[in-house]
Amino acid sequence: MKTILFFGDSLSAGHGVGQSNAFPALIQKQITEAGLEYKVVNAGLSGETSAGGKYRIHNWLNRKMDIFVLELGANDGLRGIPARETSQNLQEIIDVVKKHHPETKIVLAGMEIPDIFPGRYAAEFRALFRQLALKNNLAFVPFLLEGVVGVPHLNLSDHVHPNTEGHKMLTQHIWGVLKDLL
């Protein structure tokens, strides 16, 4: 059986809805229904930044991974971490996965932040994901939270994390890219 490793933050971890209702578990249901031989492993950690992920990835390198879904960066954006730093951290994660698992297919889940941030930060942040995907020839989900962010009935009361209905939309975004790799 092949393995898909979701390496992310609270979105993957299912903050507020539990792992069983988070999009990685919903992806597993779609895979099972399609009769495909893949096991989803959820390595989501609430609060994780790209810097934290850069160090935490080493705990997962001894695991089998046929597909690696990288879903980090939202917390960087919320904290205003420089886009260049986030990009460098994500690149290091990509590099170490490629080095230890050269046959692994990598999917990058892009993130955006509102244009309310001062200066060019929001544009630079949005662009960093596209640039990484192009540079590394990665399968790419342009904006994981598209159609979910800012929509009250798709989010928890914190207005940040998707509810179960929101996670269904995230599943659609990921599945749209992932299904072609299976």
Automatic annotation (TrEMBL):
**Can you name one GO molecular function term for this protein?**
phosphatidylcholine lysophospholipase activity
Q: Which PROSITE patterns match?
A: LIPASE_GDSL_SER (PS01098)
| Chain ranges of the SGNH hydrolase-type esterase domain | 6-168
GO BP term (any one): lipid metabolic process
The UniProt entry, under InterPro entries, shows: Ester_Hydrolysis_Enzymes (IPR051532), Lipase_GDSL_AS (IPR008265), SGNH_hydro (IPR013830), SGNH_hydro_sf (IPR036514)
User: What name does this protein carry?
Assistant: Arylesterase
The lineage, from the top, is: Bacteria, Pseudomonadati, Bacteroidota, Cytophagia, Cytophagales
